[in-house]
């Protein structure tokens, strides 16, 4: 049985091991980074548990999007992974800083469930949108012939398949352009990511942003 709940301190070792398996060329978060996340915004960190095993995580912040350019990097928007850019008092954007799912457990709807948890959080907090940089995990194989932008367009048109971007499009996100140098250590994407956004159609500008109640998620 798949369960989505908030990430707990006892999940950290398993989360680090999961990141290392899913993204072998990208350094996993350190223990202190997870500790910072669980201190500043515990409601924004999700764990997917299948039959008692941690099989996926989703890491999120609330940011003041207007402070960042359309050409930001993962390091700039998270302050090099310190995550002190989180600002729930003035921010109206939920930023997806990380998602990973065990490759051994695909086909159980884990990624969809984690994305749905984020959407529910966005609605519950009355935030305007979710924004993320989605790594173009298949780009390196086409880099000699296509620019990152051309590659993304061909994925959108259905001429090429990129597992990350196709999944995000199917989850209702819109493609907004390329983030060059987003993750410089990512060999599969050569550092390139797609800027994606999901708009909260239930956002009410007359209501304040607020943390969800105790029964969430």
What does this protein structure show overall?
- This protein is an alpha+beta fold.
- Helices cover 28% and strands 23% of the residues.
- It is built from 6 helices and 7 strands.
- The chain has helices spanning 12-22, 31-40, 74-78, 110-125, 148-157, 163-170; strands spanning 2-6, 46-50, 53-63, 93-101, 129-135, 174-179, 193-199.
- The protein has a 7-stranded mixed sheet with strand order 1-2-3-4-5-7-6.
- It starts with a strand and ends in an 18-residue tail after the last strand.
- The mean pLDDT is 95.
- This is GNAT family N-acetyltransferase.
- Residues 2-202 form the N-acetyltransferase domain.
- GO terms for molecular function: acyltransferase activity, transferring groups other than amino-acyl groups.
- InterPro entries: Acyl_CoA_acyltransferase, GNAT_dom.
Please write out the topology:
Elements: E1 2-6, H1 12-22, H2 31-40, E2 46-50, E3 53-63, H3 74-78, E4 93-101, H4 110-125, E5 129-135, H5 148-157, H6 163-170, E6 174-179, E7 193-199
Parallel strand pairs: 4-5
Antiparallel strand pairs: 1-2, 2-3, 3-4, 5-7, 6-7
Mean pLDDT: 95
Q: Reading side by side through the largest sheet, how are the strands ordered?
A: 1-2-3-4-5-7-6
Range of helix content = 25-40%
Distance between termini? 16 Å
Structure classification: alpha+beta
Model regions low in confidence, pLDDT < 50 over at least 5 residues: none
The largest pleated sheet is described as: 7 strands, mixed
- SSE order in H/E notation? EHHEEHEHEHHEE
| Amount of beta strand | 15-25%
The rough form would be described as: globular
- Count of helical segments? 6
């Amino acid at each position: 049985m798949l369960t989505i709940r908030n990430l707990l301190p006892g999940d950290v070792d398993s989360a680090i091991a999961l990141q290392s398996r899913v993204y072998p060329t990208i350094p996993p978060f350190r223990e202190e980074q997870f500790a910072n996340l669980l201190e500043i915004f515990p409601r924004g960190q999700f764990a997917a548990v299948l039959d008692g095993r941690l099989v996926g995580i989703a890491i999120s912040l609330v940011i003041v999007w207007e402070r960042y350019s359309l050409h930001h990097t993962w390091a700039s928007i998270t302050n090099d992974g310190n995550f002190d850019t989180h600002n729930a008092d003035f921010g109206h954007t939920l930023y997806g800083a990380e998602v990973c799912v065990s490759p051994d457990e695909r086909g159980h709807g884990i990624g969809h469930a984690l994305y749905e948890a984020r959407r529910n959080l966005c609605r519950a907090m009355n935030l305007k949108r979710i924004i993320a940089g989605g790594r173009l995990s298949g780009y390196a194989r086409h880099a000699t012939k296509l620019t990152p932008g051309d590659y993304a367009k061909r994925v959108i048109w259905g001429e090429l398949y990129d597992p990350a971007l196709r999944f995000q499009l199917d989850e209702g996100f819109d493609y907004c352009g390329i983030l060059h140098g987003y993750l410089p250590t990512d060999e599969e994407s050569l550092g390139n990511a797609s800027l994606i956004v999901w708009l909260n159609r239930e956002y009410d500008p007359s209501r304040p942003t607020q943390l969800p109640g105790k029964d969430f998620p």
